[in-house]
Design brief:
Layout lengths: L2 H25 L42 H4 L9 E5 L3 E6 L4 E11 L8 E7 L4 E9 L18 E3 L6 E10 L2 E10 L4 E10 L5 E11 L14 E5 L6 E3 L1 H6 L3 E5 L2 E6 L2 E6 L5 E9 L6 E8 L2 E3 L4 E12 L2 H7 L13 H18 L2 H15 L1 H16 L1 H11 L3 H15 L7 H20 L23 H16 L6 H18 L4 H26 L4
Parallel strand pairs: 1-6
Antiparallel strand pairs: 1-2, 2-3, 3-4, 4-5, 5-10, 7-8, 8-9, 9-19, 10-17, 10-18, 11-12, 11-14, 13-16, 14-15, 15-19, 16-17
């Protein structure tokens, strides 16, 4: 089989795999969605969708089960809190005074859509049917520790990062039975990394002992892409396991409980993530909680620290970092080991990462991601030029002897054994390796798939314009111009290839350009742009080599 056919069949199999995965997602068990609509119009108070809910608290650091006695009720407030607004140059957050829970966080530099440039994407949200919130708190045996159900006091209702300021500190105060806890969020200018601290002051005559927990809670996504499949769910990382996904079904099947040092936990979605990063020299328990008793069900990934002891009259601090924002590879690499793995390129990461690095390098020079994709395509084509040349030379020779192969088929009819012997003799005489076009293209297929994931995962392409009608390289071509050009280029390639001797195979090959045009009509235009440029370069190279062979060259 010549290399173009192999490439097309491999690519078609790849697309079929994506469609099969999506079919399983679409027709597998789906979470029930509540039809109840609640009023969320009040700006100063948080609508609490549930009664005080202690099932979303982790176990005690001493290994005791969650205490459901009346003692715990002293830290669980039945009154709603106030929403405290926090605004920096890159985010707008709403923090609930009940528990200091981040209930909303909008990314000012990442609009919902090109049609709504002033509306930042609300990555963290708390809606009746969709939840993605950030929780943290303290736990101890005597319940003299504020959980994310406890009510804090806030000095102001609004905090704004002023011009000339690089940091914005937002404090919350909780006091009970001589224990004073100050919970602070520290935001940075131009950054999505937030410092979170719990300062415990023991003003009693007895020792205080407790631990800190930090967790991310969300529901399943309300909708999924029909074509592009990206992971939405939890992940954790440590030096032993490195990188492990914990999807929503996993949480329902069994509860995660894993001790490790350092590391981090996160909730991922396409282009964005929320992650808790503890001190890397500390020991933590990673855990998960699936609450399917409520609708919609919530899924929690969390980290709980070891206990700290605070003697009377003394204090201690629990510290962590929280990242809520886009998957910016360079920034994630700076924050914590392995955090850049949340830009999930799959098993071909070792290829996708250098491709993305080169793409970013070109963008730094030309300032346009579409042009950067074209330059990257030219580079890949240059690297594989000799391999492609071998393939096209083999195809051109096969095309040249095509009429003779047709004559052999007419001569031997259904005698396949004699037909194969005659074909081998012809190939030997003409010095043709019938498999000469296969190996080079097999080498290129992993590169194509790696580039597919590199372009799919990079948030830089989100709402990035190219030229004229293409305003966003991360979505499909609105007028299907690129998919049509791609289909035409594939038809031209078919004309340059030798005609398959089998009529059925010939019909299948002629149908593939139309099939791929349909599939790619729904792919991001950045991916289609790569394929179009690659096809055009392939046609030019193949045409030159074919003309040379037809003229009697080699």
């Amino acid at each position: 089989m010549d290399n173009t056919r192999l490439f097309l069949f491999a690519a078609l199999a790849f697309v079929a795999m994506l469609l099969w995965q999506q079919w399983q997602l679409d027709y597998g068990p789906q979470p029930e969605i509540s039809n109840e609509i609640k009023d969320t119009s009040t700006a100063e108070q948080v609508a609490d969708n549930d009664m005080p809910n202690i099932v979303d608290l982790p176990d005690q650091a001493v290994g005791l089960p969650v205490d459901t006695s009346s003692q715990l009720e002293s830290t669980v407030a039945t009154v709603p809190g106030r929403l405290i607004k926090v605004e920096t140059d890159v985010v707008i957050a709403l923090i609930d005074s009940k528990g200091g829970v981040i209930r909303s966080l909008k990314l000012k530099k990442y609009p919902i859509s090109l049609d709504q440039p002033e509306q930042g994407l609300e990555l963290i949200h708390s809606d009746p049917e969709s939840i993605h919130i950030i929780q943290s708190g303290l736990r101890n045996r005597s319940n003299t520790a504020p959980t994310h159900h406890s009510v804090y006091q806030a000095a102001k209702s609004k905090y704004v990062l002023q011009d000339g300021e690089d940091r914005l500190i937002v404090p919350f105060l909780w006091e009970q039975d001589g224990i004073r806890v100050i919970k602070t969020y520290e935001f940075r200018r131009g950054d999505y990394l937030i410092d979170v601290k719990h300062r415990v002051e023991n003003n009693t005559s007895q020792d205080w002992q407790g631990s800190q927990y930090r967790q991310i809670q969300r529901t399943r996504p309300l909708s999924k892409s029909r074509i592009l499949i990206t992971y939405t769910g939890a992940v954790y990382y440590n030096e032993e396991v490195k990188y492990e996904k914990v999807d929503f079904d996993d949480m329902e099947d069994s509860q995660l409980k894993l001790n490790f040092q350092g590391g981090w936990i996160a909730m991922l979605q396409h282009y964005f993530l929320s992650a808790w990063i503890p001190p890397q020299d500390g020991t933590n328990l990673a855990y998960s909680i699936a609450n399917t008793s409520r609708q919609p069900a919530t899924y929690t990934i969390g980290l709980r620290s070891a206990n700290k002891l605070v003697s009377p009259g003394n204090s201690t601090e629990f510290t962590s970092q929280l990242f809520v924002g886009p998957k910016l590879v360079k920034r994630l690499e700076e924050i914590a080991p392995g955090l850049e793995l949340t830009v999930d390129y799959g098993v071909l990461t070792f290829l996708s990462k250098p491709l993305y690095w080169l793409l970013s390098l070109y963008h730094g020079y030309v300032g346009n991601w579409g042009l950067a994709i074209i330059l990257l395509t030219l580079t890949i084509k240059a690297v594989f030029y000799k391999l492609s040349e071998t393939s096209y030379r083999s195809m051109a020779k096969m095309r040249k002897v095509g009429p003779r192969l047709k004559t052999l088929k007419e001569r031997y009819g259904s005698d396949k054994k004699r037909m194969n012997q005659a074909m081998m003799e012809l190939y030997k005489t003409e010095k043709i390796n019938p498999m000469g076009g296969c190996l080079p293209i097999l080498v290129q297929i992993p590169v194509f798939i790696a580039l597919y994931w590199a372009l799919l995962e990079t948030v830089d392409l989100r709402q990035a314009p190219f030229i004229f009608w293409i305003k966003d390289l991360s979505v499909q071509d609105p007028f299907y111009v690129l998919p049509v050009i791609m289909g035409i280029s594939m038809l031209i390639q078919q004309k340059l290839n030798p005609t398959p001797p089998d009529p059925i195979q010939a019909k299948v090959m002629m149908a593939l350009p139309f099939v791929f045009t349909f599939f790619f009509a729904f792919f991001p235009s950045g991916l289609v742009l790569y394929w179009v440029i690659n096809n055009i370069l392939s046609i030019a190279q193949q045409w030159v080599i074919t003309k040379r062979i037809d003229a009697g060259g080699s």
